[in-house]
Amino acid sequence: PFFPMVKNESIVLQNSKSVAREHLPEVSPQHADGGTILLFYQYIEPCWTKSEHKKALKKVIDIGKKLDITGRGRVAPEGLNCTLTGSPQNVRSFCEKLREWNDIFHETDFKLTDGVSHSRMFKNLSIRKTNELVAYGLSGEKAPSLKKFGGTHLEASDYHKAMADSNTVIVDVRNAYETAIGSFRPPEGGAKLIDPKMRNSIEFPKWLSDKKTQEQLSGKKVLMYCTGGIRCERATALLNQMSAVDENLKPAGVYHCRGGIDRYMKTFPEGGYWNGKNYLFDRRMEQTPSVKAEGAVEEDIDSKCCLCHGKWTVYRGKFKCCNTLCGVPVIVCESCKITATKKPEALVCELCREGHKNPTALPDLVGQKRKADRLVENDTDRNGSKKQSKVNDKEHYHGDRLFLRRLPLYSTFTKIKEALGPADVRCVHWLSDKESGAFYGSCIVQVSDDEAAATDIEEARLRWS
User: Fold this and answer.
1) Is 257 a catalytic residue?
2) Structure confidence by residue, pLDDT tens digits, 203-243
3) In Å, what is the CA distance from 341 to each residue of 320, 333, 349?
4) Which among 82, 95, 226, 321 is annotated as catalytic?
5) CA 136, CA 196: separation in Å to the nearest integer?
6) What angle in degrees, to the nearest 10, is found between the helix axes of 88-101 and 50-66?
7) What pTM was computed for the model?
8) H or E element in which residue 252 lies
9) Residues 405 and 442 sit within 8 Å (Cβ to Cβ)
10) Of 145, 152, 175, nearest to 256 (Cα)?
11) Could you read off the pLDDT of 360-393 as tens digits, one per residue?
12) Which residues have a Cβ under 8 Å from the Cβ of 274 and sit 6 or more positions away?
């Protein structure tokens, strides 16, 4: 456990756990006739080739059509991100078919919600071929490696405990219009909440590279969160990559909630430290704690109609800010709908009304990535071993290297460091299959010296014996 539990309320611990590498939950009898919504994402590293990308798109569509699955999805060279609906059994069959097709989907955290009204289900299936799963502007050579720099996943129950720590900051990596109707509110004396006030995800790298932002993060444990977890994958990796090359940016650990707000809310049905609604991008529109009274949820929200400024907490009608460079969704109450339809030029979001502007300077993401990669990769040229075609056993032996095997396929540089404890991990060389280029669960770790390596081995022996 991270920190002591500080809020006394019901916790459904089984909902806190990921289904990665596990059997999918059975369909309960009361939900057998309803619909099921499936949220999931899976990053691929190294990325699919053009041919593999094309085949992946076709495969996902074929599986979906055969099982009468509906919904929306994106297939990019870096992976897959979907929100889908269907019958409870067909949705589970869809997940199993993905696992049969590619072993990487055994690592996927499939988030299932049964008992959904058929009116809330998608009418058709639309899977798009894209360059990026989340529009951070971090596709291709700009993308920070999740294996090398990805943040540490915390189960929802541990994330809850972590919010009680005063040396912690919480970063909401969603857009401001989502935050308007709900966010975490950590306990008094606990973590500090930071809202980047973004109009869209592409602003995040600029916000993160700003000196004012970095001053708030350096020296702190950083917790990030989003709707289902996908935005935090790249966001935490970008922060860790930046900290690897910038001596002035040194967070005391970077973490995110596995399964996002969706899993947290299912783990804490009374809400926990969550206040308000979770903005959703499917036909449900929003998610609320299952056993928290509707009136109590409404009291937690401060959002207002953008025209009359009266309290209103729902987005309906697809109204958007009139400013050309903004265009984010805005809240319009029932009384103002006719005016909003007739005068769309009067619709202004809260950020534009405040005159809020985020940092505009874009960091050199490609140069930064290359520099960070060099720092964590095994630079064999430094000792000349790569240039020698023949070496004897003594020359080939390196006492500061550890060979690790049978690692989870989602292992990261950060997780390796945590697992090895106090050792100064210099770099990790991920071993991959020569034909597919895929990581198969083994790596070579370089630590500071022979003594550190010996200490790690002894501690591991004591811990696992």
Assistant:
1) no
2) 999 999 999 999 999 999 999 999 999 999 999 999 999 99
3) 11, 12, 16
4) 226
5) 14
6) 150
7) 0.79
8) none
9) yes
10) 152
11) 998 899 899 989 988 887 443 444 444 333 334 4
12) 182, 183, 184, 185, 261, 264, 265, 268, 289
